[in-house]
Amino acid sequence: MMSRASDAIHPIPAYAHAPILLLIIGFLMLQPLSTDLYLASLPSLATVFAVPASTVQLTLSLFVAGFGGAQLAIGPLSDRYGRRPVLLAGLSLYVVASLLCAAAPGIQLLIVARFLQALGCCSAIIIARAIVRDAYAPADSARVIARASSWLSLAPLLGPILGSYLQVGFGWRAAFVVHSILGLCLLAAVVMRLPETNAHKDPRATEMAGLVENFKLVLGAREFWANALPGALSYGSIFAFISGSSLVLIRVLNVPTEWFGYCFAFAVSGYLAGTIACRRLLPKFGQTATQRIGGTLSLTAGALFLMAVGFGALHWTLVVGAMFLTMFAHGISFPVAQSGSVTPFPRQAGTAAGLMGALTMSVAFLVGTAVGASFDGTLYPLAIIVCVLGATIFVSVRLIGATHAEVAP
Fold this sequence. Notes:
Blueprint (H helix, E strand, L loop, with lengths): L19 H17 L5 H8 L3 H29 L1 H21 L3 H29 L5 H12 L1 H17 L2 H21 L14 H12 L2 H31 L4 H54 L5 H27 L6 H26 L5 H28 L2
Helix pairs in contact: 1-5, 1-6, 1-7, 1-8, 2-3, 3-4, 3-5, 3-13, 4-5, 4-8, 5-13, 6-11, 6-12, 7-11, 10-11, 10-12, 10-13, 10-14, 11-12, 11-14
């Protein structure tokens, strides 16, 4: 993950004194750590609180719902009041909510606290994307996201493994204690080192008329959909594995529970490799071609997975291999989608980032619901869902992305 000197990217001079890239990496890591770190504790939660697995699943699904919905508000708030105050409020809420999770005496409070935790976590992700637009030249934004994503991949790579050891050594509350410590560290870093990067505050961003105007501007732009739709679908393809891999690996293919974290970590290494590939592809081929490469790989991964299942290949290496290829494709596509959906809107960067994030979480929620509802004890439902998503990613890139490439100035 070490970058070459020729690959160096620096913020614009006004922010050269601040560790902008390091802070962006920390903000982006908060989301995967907020989910992956406690995945190994889900079975224990059902036992401790004597509730069905479907009730425990609400701690994950309502986190996704809260995270998605909050983005519609956090983006405009940061356009109106600035990135720094919204981020300080969000991280403070995250720390308090994480402590509530750790101290929860019952599943009901844990579910509510997880929802609040999602609101705080959301602020970090949205502000990170907006800061990229504020502090870096537009030509560098995709490379900045790709570089941050390379380091970001360490969170889902190591999170499930660390979470497993925390569960075995200290119980389910330990993961949320770690969340609160991480939130405190980021909060302190923002207080001490992050300047305000929003140089174009929009006083009408939170007024109803201003919101509607900004939403219409962003949602009416083909450039937004050319990036946000493939990006959301790409995230949906990996979320299918996030929500379904434990079911098929442990229940269907009889992988020991203690080995699940390592299988998941190997698959996530595909995302790390994809982000590194993205950083190499962008200078050579540009954003449109790089996005098409990612879309083609998504289709290939899904089609090969479904074909292998159809031919009767029932082995854990098939699932892990399909996860690796899908996450590799996501690592190429998603940095381009994140930067491309925000870059055209310098004065509505927060709004654009929020809309892109809300779309992404909506797709993830639908995919997770479909995976859970369709599980039948075989690999077919997961393989079909991943293949369909790969096809839709490919089509959306070719249709909307091709049109975008023609009209872009």
